[in-house]
Amino acid sequence: MKKLRLVTAVICVAVLAGCGSKSGNTSNSAGKDSQPKETNEVISNQNDSSEDENSVVEYDTSKADDFESNEDLDTQRKAAEKKVLDTLGDGYEIDHSEENPHNEGDEIVYQVYVYENGDSQNITRYFATADFCMTQEEWDDYVSVEDDAQGIIMNFAGDYSNGRGIIHVEPTGNNSAYISVKWAGSAFDYAEWNMSGEMQEDGSNFTIAYTDCVKKVITYSENGEEESQTTEYENGSGKMIISKDGKITWIDNQEDIAAEQTFEFYNE
Q1: By residue range, what is the domain housing residue 253?
Q2: What is the pTM (predicted TM-score) of this model?
Q3: Which of 50, 95, 138, 167 could form a disulfide with 134 if both were Cys (CB 3.0 to 4.6 A apart)?
Q4: Per-residue pLDDT tens for 135-185?
Q5: CA 8/CA 242 separation, integer angstroms
Q6: 158 and 259 share one domain
Q7: Tens digits of residue pLDDT in 38-52
């Protein structure tokens, strides 16, 4: 009987020890499974944070030039509005302004709409830059004259020859032109005249009178290199008479070198 009790006690101790061992293993296994999981999450979060800190923030600069351009335009617009108000005096206010389709060279002209003494129902338009202010009538006259004069000169731009000399006509804007003449002297020299003037309609012809002519003589060596350039006179006067069929007569008050010969348009 004692022997049976002893065996039973040993068996109970063994069972209890086995249960304790299983319980401890279960706890350790759970610890091993859960701990790496937390560690992985922490590492992942740390990596994400590192990427955020080291990442380069890229800004879109494609609009920078547009912004600067718009800023310049706004400055020009305000200068035009100020010119109008300064010209008109007290009592006028700006209703709005807008860019004019016809500009003055590289400078933008603005149509500026104003009203007087708070009467916003009666609005008047002016054409302005920072340098001038014009009424509608003044602007129409200005554009008409400018376009007509520019058109006339453009019709006669180019080179003209009498067989020995060449006249070059180059428009310079509005109703003015730059003119150069080259005239062969010998195999080793030629004369050159440079002048400018405004084109005026003269009956059936157009005339460009000048008072700023400079004459030079250029000489060359036998191998074609320029040897000298001598100024013979300055402030010479005369005129170019341009017929409406495209021929030029040169009247030179200093030498009359062309002797009123006719120069005809040609393509070099």
Answers
A1: 154-265
A2: 0.46
A3: 138
A4: 988 887 776 655 554 557 778 889 999 988 999 998 887 678 999 999 988
A5: 141
A6: yes
A7: 444 444 444 444 445
